[in-house]
Amino acid sequence: MKKLIKWTLNHVPRPLLQRIAGWAVPMAGLFYRGRGAECPVCGAKYRKFLPYGYVHTRANALCPKCLSLERHRLLWLYLTRETDLLKCYPRTLHIAPEVCIMRHLKPHFAGHPGQYVTADLESPLADLHFDVQQIPLADDSVDVILCNHLLEHVADDRKALCELYRILKPGG
Question: What is the pTM of this model?
Fold first, then answer.
């Protein structure tokens, strides 16, 4: 399973992976049913999580149900335990949205159009498409920015951070 996942990650184009992962990974998860690990994002229980990694495969990393990785589960725990994001409706920009997190935030903001917006350079799942080094939003226009695991992929991370700071409201 480990070798198959590594080969797939390194040979199948990312946009295609994003489209097929929603049904292919849960099918693989059927072989992992059990009670050794519980995902805080979706609540599913497995013997262990699936292996995952492009270069170095990490054991016990990917939830077969919601596709969360370690960093996504940690982010979800932080959002639910340490913030009031799910109790109110701040103008939120979710850049390079993780599907497992987006599945919770979209329904939360459903009755508040325009308060939750997703963005990515090329993902077909995002509402807006732009380069984070040149964000087409007004100054001081968002209360919350979720931007996880992105800056290492950007040519000029300082420019990207300046853009994020520019669009974030004071105190955001």
Answer: 0.81
HEC readout, 16-27: HHHHHHHHHHHH
Residues 96-127 have pLDDT tens digits of 999 999 999 999 999 999 999 999 998 888 99
DSSP sequence for the chain: -HHHHHHHHHHS-HHHHHHHHHHHHHHHHGGGEEEEEE-TTT--EESSPEEE-SSSPEEEEE-TTT---HHHHHHHHHHHHH--TTTS---EEEES--HHHHHHHHHHHTTSTTSEEEEESS-TT-SEE--TTS--S-TT-BSEEEE-S-GGG-S-HHHHHHHHHHHBPTT-
Tens digits of per-residue pLDDT, 1-23? Answer: 667 767 777 787 777 776 666 66
